Structures are given as structure tokens and as C-alpha cells.
Amino acid sequence: MRIFRYRDSGGLILGVMADDGSAFKLDEPDLITLWKAARAQGVMLSEFVAERIAESVPLSRQAESLDLAMPVDAPEVWAAGVTYERSRQARNYEATSGRLNADTFYDKVYEAERPELFLKSTAARTVGPGEQVCLRSDSAWQVPEAELGLVLDRDGTIIGYTAGNDMSCRDIEGENPLYLPQAKIWKRSCAIGPFIRLADTVADPYALAVSCRIYRGGVKMFDETANTGMLKRKLDELIVFLKRDNELFDGTVLLTGTCLVPPNQFTLKSGDRIEIEVETIGTLVNTAVNVHELDTASVAL
């Protein structure tokens, strides 16, 4: 069961896709309102939604054919780094200018009790499916990072799972770790969506295939798939550290890291189509554009 939002003449509408693919309109304005209503009745969210749509008439269109928007307005998007072995290798390559077998602070954080967590984005900087993500003007080595995202409430409870794109400047981060905020945060440097699979409908979040595909001029430049079972850290572990002496907000998204890294010689270019797919959740599609092209670019998805 997947939650989504779509645009129509009346604004943003909340919807749900049932397991058989049929889509239904919901009366609530957003996911958090829906979540609170279910909790007030003391029932699981999937059960609450199933009861709501049992007597409803499905939408005349499939959810994927609607004008989909960000499924949740995340007040903050946080991200975890170096949670996969492949990510550790990539970060070491950046930090050591390609020297092999050179240990760095990334090795330390990979093995440490405390994970790497950082603020990735805010609601104003985050985009949804079909929207453009920006390429930073002062970076020459930029890549998407395909990640499983956790949608949390203010208590750190996982409401659902979504797909996320943690855009990253490998050269800026590799030059100096203190530049991490600049390597990660800028206009439209994060995308989430298109769906949120309700947490109580996911049997095993450590058994989800995650794929990243990049197309340039219709030609596939990168295509790899990994699995969340390769995660070094448990999801609850990341949440515990995120909550520690910190204030969470309903709808916060925590991206859990990536193990899909394009070849070291690859960098995104304006017009590249990025597809990030998480099994049973959906495919997040965005087009990369230079910042100065944002208002005039019209790359068809």
C-alpha cells in the first residue's frame, strides 16, 4: 500500500495505491494528518486506510499517470553517510586522490559506534518526481546517490519508506571534509518520491533492491542495482542517533546511504535523466540542469 500526492485544479490531493494497483483519493490533506487519525483510533495505518477505501470508487487513472508531487513535505531531510562498504571505498578514493589502501576518517566512521549523520535538505530545497535537480556551479564532479528514505514522525517512528536522491559533489567533499555541507546542500540538491510505502506493509526493509540508472541523450550511461541487505548499520540504530538530544518534526525524512556509485570518471551533465528505483516503492525520475538553466530548461521526462 503506497501513499502519494498529485496535482489537479484544486491543488494537491492525497491518494493511495492499493496492492492491486488501483488508486483512490483520500480526504486528508497530507500523510501526517492521515497518520495522526490512525493513531487516534489505535489502529495500524494500513488497516485504517484499507477501511477507508473499502467502499470507495477507484480513480479512473493509474497513479503513475497522474501529475505526481512530493508525497510528503519533509521539514528536514537528514542523511547517513558511509553506511555501505561501497560508499566507504568511494569516499576514500575522493579523500586520497585515488591512492589505494590509504585509510581515512571514513574508515573510522564506518567502524565506529556513532554513525555519520548530517542535515541534507529542507522543504524549500527538496523536489519531487518529474522535477529538476540542480548541478552546483562550482563543482566538476557530481553524482546522484540512490537511497532508501525513512519517513518519520516526531518520535522517530517509521511511518513509511520512500526513494531518495542525495545529490553529491565528490570533488568538494574530497578536497576537505569540512566542506561537506557545501558538497551536499544547495538549491534543488535533493529529491524524494514518488510514493511512500507504509511501514507496516514492508515485511523486511533489509531485502529491498535499489537501482540507479542515468541516461544522457537517450543513451544509458550507468545502471547498477544493490540491496538494502548490504547496509552496515540497522535503521533503528540510525534513528536512535538522529533523535539523540535533537528535535524531530513530523514528516522528517532520513536517507540511509548509498552503495551505488557511478565510475570515478563520470560526472552528471545538464539534461541527464536520473532514475532511482526502490523495490515495491517506485521509481523516482528527475532531470539534472545547471543552476542558471533552472528557469528556462524544459527537458521532457
Helix content: 10-25%
Number of helices: 7
* CATH H-level superfamily title of the largest domain: Fumarylacetoacetase-like, C-terminal domain
Query: Which structural class matches the secondary elements?
Result: alpha+beta
**CATH T-level fold name of the largest domain:** Fumarylacetoacetate hydrolase, domain 2
Number of structurally distinct domains = 2
CATH architecture identity of the largest domain: Alpha-Beta Complex
What's the N-to-C terminus distance? Answer: 25 Å
The biggest sheet, with number of strands, parallel, antiparallel or mixed sense and barrel status, is:
11 strands, mixed
Approximately how much beta-strand content do the residues carry? 25-35%
| Unreliable residue runs | 297-301
Question: What is Rg?
Answer: 19 Å
Strand-and-helix sequence, N→C?
EEEHHEEHHEEEEEEEHHEEEHEEE
The total of beta strands comes to 18
Specify the overall morphology: globular
How confident is the prediction overall: mean pLDDT? 91
Query: For the record, what CATH class of the largest domain applies?
Result: Alpha Beta
